[in-house]
Amino acid sequence: MLPAAAVFHFPWEVTSGAVQEGESVRTFGRLISYQPEESRATLSAQHVSKEHQVVVSTLFVEPFNPIIGAQYVVLGEKENTEGADVMVRARVLNCVDGVNVALLQKAINEQRSFFRERESKQGDAAQAADVT
Fold it and tell me: Which of 2, 56, 72, 77 is buried most, with the most CB atoms less than 10 Å from its CB?
């Protein structure tokens, strides 16, 4: 059986605890640091007036050719570690430099509203089937 598809989460949601440990997650951010000896990268994204950082384990995606300052999308599992509060163990780490972050955020919000609407319609249809 395949794991559930990863849902896009904003970096501030990953660090705030909205994502459970071991859950698949997709997130994005600008690469601000990479420590090859530790197989660790740090992505950063700004929300309102605060900068949020997500630590990414790059062990499974190496060799990794980092471009500091470029925009990246990561797909992996969330882990809680002793050194860092939250870490995403990357299965896929793609450079998407040039992406319009504002449009990406809007697309994520639109996708979420679509899924919520679809779930509510399916719930309504299931209730109607139970009544008949």
Answer: 56
pLDDT tens digits for range 73-127:
999 998 877 765 679 999 999 999 999 988 989 998 998 899 889 888 887 777 7
Kindly list the structural domains of the chain, giving each domain's residue range(s) and its CATH number in brackets, ordered by start.
Answer: 7-99 (2.40.50.140)
Q: Would you say the pTM of this structure is higher than 0.85?
A: no
